[in-house]
Amino acid sequence: MSITENSIRISRQTDHTVITLQGVLDQELSSNLVPLVSKVAPPIIFDLRQVSYVTAAGSRVILGYYQSFGVKPILRYANQNIIELLDLTGTLNYVSLAEDEPITTAN
Fold this sequence. Notes:
This protein is of the alpha/beta class. The chain is about 35% helix and about 30% strand. It has a five-stranded mixed β-sheet with strand order 1-2-3-4-5.
């Protein structure tokens, strides 16, 4: 069993910002993410490809972005567990799910 360390990477594009998260979007990662997200103007994309699970604290960060800016953040590569949790908490109503292209591996 390997332990994935939580990390945040921000990539500013010309017309949007991508925040790539790794690990579990829990209280610890959320507390580091809040000050960063509050400074990023819409549109924002959360790349969740390397996120295994989102806790209620993580859900609140995503919802907080919508509440602050009135714009739905885009979630890219959200797994089924993440989608189910966001649906349970009602947060799914305040996000857009990206039409994810298939993940390909380099040969």
